Amino acid sequence: MPFIILAYDKPDAERLRADLRPRHLAYLAARQDQMLAGGAVLDDDGKAIGGMIIVDTDDRAAAERFVGDDPFSTGGLFGSVQILPWRRSFFDRQRVPGL
Prior knowledge:
Layout: E1 3-9, H1 14-29, E2 35-42, E3 48-55, H2 60-69, H3 71-74, E4 78-85, E5 90-91, E6 94-95
Antiparallel strand pairs: 1-3, 1-4, 2-3, 5-6
């Protein structure tokens, strides 16, 4: 069962996010085979305030390592992180067979 990683930035961390972003994107690009989806979480004005990644693993510890090794995490950007199991019902605009 995949895991959703939902991380929110610390308050007033726009500059830190911008500084860490190139390393974060390189980290994700090197691991794109482990992700089903991902992207920034935005506020109502379109400003990034966090991120969401769905990691394709059945191992919570692997999901914890994935976010723990992310430069956004090691660089101190995140104020909070949730890791939640995810059961697919719909994916890529399609109903998942057998559910």
